[in-house]
Hints:
- By secondary structure, the chain is of the alpha/beta class.
- The protein has helices at 18-35, 49-64, 88-100, 102-107, 123-132, 148-158, 202-206, 214-226, 252-260, 280-288, 305-310, 317-330, 349-362, 389-411; strands spanning 6-8, 40-45, 68-69, 78-83, 112-117, 138-140, 162-164, 184-188, 190-191, 210-211, 231-235, 267-271, 295-297, 335-342, 366-371, 418-426, 433-437, 443-447, 456-464, 469-474.
- The chain folds into 4 domains: 3-171, Cobalamin-binding domain (Rossmann fold); 181-274, 2-Layer Sandwich (Transcription Regulator spoIIAA), CATH 3.30.750.210; 294-412, 2-Layer Sandwich (Transcription Regulator spoIIAA); 415-474, CATH 2.40.50.140.
- The radius of gyration is 23 Å and the shape is globular.
Amino acid sequence: MSDQGKTMKNASAEPFSEEICDAVLALNREREARRGHSPRCFVLTFGCQQNVADSEKLLGMAMRMGYARAETPDKADLILVNTCAVREHAEDRALSIVGQYKHLKEKNPDLLIGVCGCMAAQQHRREQLKKSYPYVDFVMGTSVLHRLPELLLAALSTRKRTFCSDEENVIAEGVPIVRDSAYRAFVSIMYGCNNFCTYCIVPYVRGRERSRAPDEIEREVRQLVADGCKDITLLGQNVNSYGKGLSEKVDFADLLARLDKIEGDFRLRFMTSHPKDATRRLVDVMAGGRHIAHAFHLPLQSGSDAVLERMNRRYTTAKYLEILDYMREKMPDIAVTSDIIVGFPGESEADFEATLKMLSRARFDMIFSFIYSPRRGTPAAEMPDQIPREAQSARMGKLLSLQEEIAKEINLPLVGTVRRVLCDGASKTDAGMLSGRDEQNKLVFFADDGTSAGEWVNIKIDRAAPFALYGEKVR
Ligand code: SAH
Ligand code: SF4
Ligand code: F3S
């Protein structure tokens, strides 16, 4: 194998190529005839739902090219590591796993290893993978995912390593998708982000915002519903700004209203929203919808206006509460969840107290909280007054215990109510129990009565914990 890395520049923005797929398929058929079984592919996913959705495309393409699915990496002839770069920890984990795959290559010299996703979209990481991970065969950024067939063809026929950088403004339609679940699905409606929150790497690794055509989205959602899918989440880094740059005049509220007209027994969700772009009209469409779940993920990040400004979030806490209050007025049963960053550079005790105060006022059903992690190339990484780790951890502890109290108070009155739950099968933690999600996306546990994953059940709640509800099936 050549150690001479190749950096692809000015790669063409051609659509997904069936022809190249067929060429790889032919090579794989030859291998299959030689070895008596088809080559297998293992996809490992880090990061957010966007990456989960991308991994379903990676697997879809691999299977289109004759790979079977490998359950474990040691059984694979192709390993794709779909990485995340949002915090340092995510990158460290991905690199450490890639390191562990070295010995698999020693056992199976035919094995190909590809690294893709957000970490792979950074120049310095590509260099690092090229230099220090010689057993990695190809690296590709997020926007060129649909070119996997090309990279595989190169790797299989010449065994040359390829380092493929991103392209702006690329959307590939027609990429095959193999979804993990038959009844829950993610549908990407847009890619990239234009917001440049000062802590965040996403705009650098996923490029500028670009929306899929509404017809394509509607076609995909209709097909999913026809195939029996019951819970569909529309994905984008900021779905509230959907539609910009499209020839058709359409915004997110329009898209949602359009998809809500589809007949069938399914729930429609979306994530993530940005408070600066969440509109009353969107809330009205949700409130008047038939399929749109009363659940809203609206990242706050901080309860201090000074910190929000330095984060470049472009809203104030007052503005945030305005849209939040409107949501609750129109949909009293809505569940609102949020993201909070603790220990952003310059966050004073008073700033942090303001976040706690905001939590008490906003009363989220759940929060995802993160200790600030400096990301190379982002403005916040260069800001003065980085907060020491101990102070960050102490604040995180306080935040979590306050949130636990709040969540407990919110869930307690749900005892005695009947929730319509989409069953996900056996609970991972409690033997003899099943779990599922209700409309508000709350986790619900109930006794195993043979209900299958993907079935709707009505559960009467008899116990409420901060992070889950427990109950029994009723007719
Ligand atoms: N586009 C979405 C999600 C972005 S990443 C949004 O705008 O909400 C998901 C969450 O990770 C963010 O909401 C933020 O809370 C957190 N996050 C992003 N960058 C981070 C960083 N450098 N350190 C810690 N948390 C971060
Ligand atoms: Fe990151 Fe902000 Fe874009 Fe979300 S909106 S992906 S936090 S830059
Ligand atoms: Fe991570 Fe990329 Fe998502 S950085 S959080 S996988 S958009």
